[in-house]
Amino acid sequence: VELTALAIMQDAPVIPVIVLNKVEHAVPMAEALVAGGIRVLEVTLRTPQGLDCIAAIAKSVPEAIVGAGTVRNAADAWAAQAAGARFAVSPGYTQALGQACRDLRLPLLPGVATSSEIMAAQADGFNELKFFPAMQAGGPAMLKAWQGPFGDLRFCPTGGISPANAADFLSLKNVVCVGGSWLVPTHALEHGDWAHITALAREAVALRG
Ligand code: 3PG
């Protein structure tokens, strides 16, 4: 079965945005999230260890659906898929990136923050989009405004979202899920506090009432 961007967004109310500096954190971190009910994991390419972390999770945590975040160009997309990523998330959108992901059959969640960016991504066939950076670029009010002209599009807002404001986004009809880094705090990684990550995942799953 081919994975779609929509299926990835529908799996849980929150896609964790994960930044890892140590490959040995990847597998226990992924197992902790899966234990809490979160299996779609976005491991960002913003650290040099990102690709190796994706590979480790793809190999050792079969229950997880691991993807790459911070995918900015075609080379990132190729490298992500080669490492085992099953989807890609980008902070913005370019035609070159869209074409590369289509060629690779790698589901892409492209980032947008303006109406023109939405139109560019939609023209290339992308109807599920990441709204980034969500709080900084207009928050829930922006998504409400987009319901008029872009009622056929669905969003994963990311950036500045926390348990305190996630419900404001998840209650919108054009929001399928949200993204956020709060599920994998640096201190939990550094102290091996996997139980804390599992607890945060459980809370995130419960956000969809
Ligand atoms: C991202 O990197 O995609 C977002 O910046 C994550 O945002 P957050 O750290 O505010 O959750």
UniProtKB/TrEMBL annotation:
Its EC number is 4.1.2.14. The keyword Zinc-finger does not apply. CDD domains: KDPG_aldolase. Pathway: Carbohydrate acid metabolism; 2-dehydro-3-deoxy-D-gluconate degradation; D-glyceraldehyde 3-phosphate and pyruvate from 2-dehydro-3-deoxy-D-gluconate: step 2/2. It catalyses: 2-dehydro-3-deoxy-6-phospho-D-gluconate = D-glyceraldehyde 3-phosphate + pyruvate. It is an enzyme of class 4 (lyase). Pfam families: Aldolase. InterPro entries: Aldlse_KDPG_KHG, Aldolase_TIM, KDPG/KHG_AS_1, KDPG/KHG_AS_2. GO terms for molecular function: (R,S)-4-hydroxy-2-oxoglutarate aldolase activity; 2-dehydro-3-deoxy-phosphogluconate aldolase activity. Keywords: Carbohydrate metabolism, Lyase, Schiff base. Homotrimer. Belongs to the KHG/KDPG aldolase family. This is 2-dehydro-3-deoxy-phosphogluconate aldolase. The lineage of its organism: Bacteria, Pseudomonadati, Pseudomonadota, Betaproteobacteria, Burkholderiales. The gene is eda.
